[in-house]
Write a structure and sequence with these properties.
434 Repressor (Amino-terminal Domain); 7 helices; elongated
């Protein structure tokens, strides 16, 4: 789905990008940038997908990293430890 299609589908459900931004406590610009593929955010992409009642891969098929199911498989702290080990060598 492109930016305009996402906005249109959200409107059909009674929502807007600004409403999602407020619900996520982030800026409307951030939401818009994710929709336009100018930046990536798993949190925002997942929220939009939930509102649209679609899989994230269907809403953002051109962003392969959103399809990675194991992105949050490890905690942030575990990923930091892995980075520390990687950078220590």
């Amino acid at each position: 789905m492109n930016h305009e299609t996402i906005k249109s589908e959200l409107r059909k459900k009674g929502y807007s990008l600004a409403m999602i931004a407020e619900a996520l406590d982030c800026s409307p610009t951030n939401i818009q940038q994710v929709c336009k593929r100018l930046t990536q955010s798993h949190r925002v992409a997942n929220a939009i997908s939930k509102v649209l009642e679609r899989e994230v891969e269907a809403v953002f098929p051109d962003v392969p990293s959103y399809a990675e199911n194991n992105y949050f498989a490890t905690s942030r702290q575990q990923r930091i430890v892995c980075l520390q080990q990687l950078l220590a060598s």
